[in-house]
């Protein structure tokens, strides 16, 4: 069933488990996400970035909405990193049931102002809103703690921000960064900060940049002819702990990009004469399903729907 983000995330926050919010760009990715969630009785969120909307438009949104409506588990369609009020409104008109307004590049007051505008409009239509406070990105190991603090979400500010905006859930900067390269060694994630923010607030918290970049997938990627540097993601245990502390929505994009490319590369390498798209994109869908299953188990959402 197609539901709002709040319908999925409020129970997750209360039940101390995480919900996977996976980026989609086509039918196979959408099927892998929703069908795996159904098989494991897990609530799930499917998200489209502005880039995905540019690429797939209403056609792609309709695929998600149709699969979600027919799904036997709760599914929300979410706008990832909406850059403006107009963008959020456009997504709502397209049928999204959850939107993110990312005004985190503005100063605090500007962020509040832009977020509140979106919250007022979205709530009037029964749609849930995610916003972001703090700055995600490459928090490198050589940065000293004071500097880290300048980038990471301040707990007191989070309280003010939630009060002043009415946002339904909040993306916080806790050290994770977007992409397949999250630094050398075990990427940093500030569990104490999550716990502090969660104890002062109460709404679902969101972690971006939470791909695990599984080493077996990276290895298969290389073996099938792909080139990738020192890829590293968030360790499963670190993500699991984050959900215990209040992270209810966990964004995953990179892992599915890697998994689909592994499936395609392996299919083409094993069968150079193959040109049936179903024999190329089908295996990609299978590898993505495996990665999604692993993620849902790590997050603890299996059996919650
Ligand atoms: Zn993000």
At a glance:
By secondary structure, the protein is α/β, with parallel strands linked by helices.
- Annotated CATH homologous superfamily: Aldolase class I
Strand order of the largest sheet: 1-2-3-4-5-6-7-8
Can you identify the CATH class? Answer: Alpha Beta
Shape: globular
Total helices: the number is 12
The major pleated sheet works out as: 8 strands, parallel, barrel
Rg for CA atoms: 19 Å
Can you describe this structure?
By secondary structure, the protein is of the alpha/beta class. The chain has 12 helices and 8 strands. The protein has a single domain (5-299), classed as Aldolase class I (TIM Barrel). It has helices spanning 5-15, 27-39, 50-70, 85-94, 108-124, 145-151, 155-165, 191-200, 215-223, 236-245, 254-270, 277-299; strands at 19-23, 44-49, 75-82, 98-101, 128-133, 169-172, 205-207, 247-252. An 8-stranded parallel barrel has the order 1-2-3-4-5-6-7-8, surrounded by 9 helices. The mean pLDDT is 93. The protein binds zinc ion. The site of zinc ion has 4 residues, from loops.
Question: Could you name the key traits of this structure?
Answer:
305 residues; alpha/beta; TIM Barrel; eight-stranded parallel barrel; 12 helices; globular; binds zinc ion
Task: Give a topology summary.
Blueprint: H1 5-15, E1 19-23, H2 27-39, E2 44-49, H3 50-70, E3 75-82, H4 85-94, E4 98-101, H5 108-124, E5 128-133, H6 145-151, H7 155-165, E6 169-172, H8 191-200, E7 205-207, H9 215-223, H10 236-245, E8 247-252, H11 254-270, H12 277-299
Parallel strand pairs: 1-2, 1-8, 2-3, 3-4, 4-5, 5-6, 6-7, 7-8
Helix pairs in contact: 2-3, 2-12, 4-5, 7-8, 8-10, 9-11, 11-12
The protein binds zinc ion.
